[in-house]
Amino acid sequence: MSILSIRGVSRSFAETVALQATDLEVGENDFVTILGPSGCGKSTLLRIVAGLDRPSEGQILLDGKAVTGPGADRGMVFQSYTLFPWLNVLDNVAFGLRERGIPRRAQIEVAEEFLAKVGLLKFARHYPKQLSGGMQQRTALARALANNPRMLLMDEPFGALDHQTRELMQELLLGIWEREKKTVLFVTHDIDEAIFMGSRVVVMTARPGRIKSDLPSPFPHPRH
Ligand code: ADP
Ligand code: ADP
To answer: Where does the ABC transporter domain lie (predicted)?
Structure first.
């Protein structure tokens, strides 16, 4: 039973066809990695699923309902962290909760719960620029999780991190995925990362991007 259906989705920008006739079915608790060369439309696909962009053709269904914009059911994590520099770590994580009108006391409780899960409770009152790259990305992950999304949409989330931090983040994410029963769409251009992180690896062709293969990972992480 799929929770996400991507049906005949294409996206063009003026003369550029970024994504062509893409179909993908994603089931509950799947961990799908999307692998492809730079510029093949991976970010475009993820942004369309997030509701941050619209397809030129085709549609996205979440639980059978058409996606028309962003929603708390999908949490997005970008390579560049995209934290709000004027908010401390706690308020970055609480941002979506505040937007939804959750009372302040509950915002703090939930934000602290997720900061503890990513090991950053002690840094709740720090500002993003006081943190290392790995810590900023853990904050972004806590922010995405705090809205209790069913899906995590991750766009090269560990691409800017050094090797050692990247491995720690991969373990952290797989633990969260397993415990919290999230469905993950994870974009990367790193073959090793795609095979290790995903239970299923979707390979895209160079521009215009379309799906070339969609297979179980040959060497998945033991948590799969
Ligand atoms: P990837 O994430 O695989 O590197 P993208 O989805 O970012 O690829 O981009 C796919 C193609 O679409 C690229 O050629 C890119 O230049 C183009 N593109 C993406 N977004 C826009 C935009 N907002 N305006 C014009 N062209 C874009
Ligand atoms: P980077 O992306 O810069 O490698 P890390 O997440 O590995 O970032 O953190 C770098 C340093 O920040 C660590 O060596 C440690 O000193 C400090 N640090 C990170 N997380 C914590 C934590 N939960 N508690 C205390 N110190 C931490």
So the answer is: 4-224
Closest ligand, as measured to the CA of 43: 1
- pLDDT tens digit sequence for 3-52: 999 999 999 999 999 999 999 999 999 999 999 998 999 999 999 999 99
Nearest atom in ligand 1 to the alpha carbon of residue 19 is: 10
Say which residues have a Cβ less than 8 Å from residue 156's Cβ, sequence separation at least 6. 79, 187, 188, 189
Q: Is 22 in the pocket of ligand 1 (CB under 6 A)?
A: no
pTM: 0.91
| Predicted ipTM beyond 0.90 | no
Instruction: Establish whether residue 141 lines the binding site of ligand 1, counting it when its CB lies within 6 angstroms of any ligand atom.
Output: no
Minimum-distance ligand to the CA of 138? 2
